[in-house]
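Input C-alpha cells:
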C-alpha cells in the first residue's frame, strides 16, 4: 500500500500511523539525501521474522525520486509506504504505482499568486527555485501549458536580446525550452509534463 501526503502536518501522519498500523515496525527516512539503495533495500527486503513494516518517507532529495519510485513498483502487497512532501510533481505522480493521495484542503490560491506573469518576474531575477512551484499552481488553477510556455519563452528571448553577451548556460536554457516545446508537438507528448521536468532541472545559473 502506498499513501502520498501533500502538505499534511507530520503529527497528523504519525497519529494516522499509530491508529491504523499500531503493530507495524516504522522505519523513517526524513530529509534523506544519501544513497537511494538504503531506502529501496528497506522497501524491498523481506523480514526474516515476518514482522509487518511501514516505511515513512518525508522531504526526500528529489535526485533520488526516480530510484525510489522504481522500487515502489516492486514492493510486496504487505508493505506499507507513507510518503510526505510539500508537493508531488505531476510527472512523478504518473510514474508512481497505484496509490492514495491525502492532500491539505487549505486554500492556497489568491488573485495575486495566480498571476501568470510571476513566471516572467522569476525568470528575470533568476529565481529557478520557485519557478516550478508557480508553474504547477497555475496549471492547477486551469492555465494552459501552452500559454505559460509562451510567457516564459517571451521573457527568455527578451532578456537575451537586451544582453551584450549571452552565456553558454543561458543559450542552453533557450535550446532546452524550445526543444521541449518542439518535442511535445512532434511526438504528441504532453507539453505540461515536458515543461515541468525542465523547470525542475533548472538552476539559478541557467538563467544568468
Amino acid at each position: 500500500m502506498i499513501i502520498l501526503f501533500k502538505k499534511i502536518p507530520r503529527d497528523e501522519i504519525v497519529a494516522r500511523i499509530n491508529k491504523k498500523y499500531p503493530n507495524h515496525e516504522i522505519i523513517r527516512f526524513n530529509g534523506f539525501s544519501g544513497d537511494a539503495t538504503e531506502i529501496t533495500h528497506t522497501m524491498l527486503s523481506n523480514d526474516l521474522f515476518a514482522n509487518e513494516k511501514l516505511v515513512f518517507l518525508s522531504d526526500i532529495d528529489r535526485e533520488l525520486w526516480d530510484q525510489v519510485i522504481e522500487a515502489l513498483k516492486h514492493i510486496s502487497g504487505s508493505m506499507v509506504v507513507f510518503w510526505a512532501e510539500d508537493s508531488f510533481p505531476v510527472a512523478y505522480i504518473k510514474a508512481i504505482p497505484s496509490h492514495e493521495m491525502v492532500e491539505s484542503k487549505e486554500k492556497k490560491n489568491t488573485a495575486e499568486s495566480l498571476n501568470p506573469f510571476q513566471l516572467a518576474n522569476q525568470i528575470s531575477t533568476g529565481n529557478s527555485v520557485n519557478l516550478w512551484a508557480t508553474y504547477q499552481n497555475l496549471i492547477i488553477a486551469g492555465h494552459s501549458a501552452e500559454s505559460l510556455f509562451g510567457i516564459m519563452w517571451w521573457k527568455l528571448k527578451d532578456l537575451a536580446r537586451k544582453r551584450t553577451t549571452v552565456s553558454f548556460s543561458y543559450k542552453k536554457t533557450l535550446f532546452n525550452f524550445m526543444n521541449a516545446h518542439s518535442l511535445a508537438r512532434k511526438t504528441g507528448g504532453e507539453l505540461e509534463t515536458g515543461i515541468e521536468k525542465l523547470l525542475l532541472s533548472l538552476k539559478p545559473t541557467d538563467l544568468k
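DSSP finds nine helices and five strands in the chain. Residues 2-103 form a domain with the Rossmann fold fold (CATH 3.40.50.300).
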